[in-house]
Amino acid sequence: MGIKHWAVGAALVAFVGVGAWVYLDAGRSVAPESTFVLLDGSRQTTADLRGKVTLVNFWATSCTTCVAEMPEIIATHNKFHTKGFDTLAVAMSYDPPSYVVNFAESRKLPFKVALDNTGAVAKAWGDVRLTPSTFIVNKRGEIVKSYVGAPDFPELHRLIEKLLAET
To answer: Averaged in consecutive runs of 10 residues, what is the pLDDT profile of the chain (167 residues)?
Structure first.
């Protein structure tokens, strides 16, 4: 009987600990140090993201979900860009650069697009292999939410509004 009570007590302590960790936002992690090579050849680092709420989207032109969600990502960028929100689309290493350039130009993507030729950026961000994978980074450079697959955009918009309101 003593072991059963001990197990229940341990489970309760673990449950309360996880709840407090989530409630206090202790689960936030600092965005990994990365250098993004943009289509125009310029470079941007993770440090450059600080001060803005940023959506970092790993995608590929061959990914049907990525292509399907892109109008929503464009709309999200356009809705919040003037309020301190930025978007960075990172093309996967297996995506031919000419395809990425063509996609960005033909769809007039209004945000920065990076090529991850070596796969180092995807590796740094948690060894991203599934696309789309999206990370929301707050003004302090912390990842506050990640999505594998298309995000729930109304929920995403509420989160962005909340993060933009933070000081």
So the answer is: 48 38 56 96 95 98 97 98 97 97 97 97 97 98 96 98 95
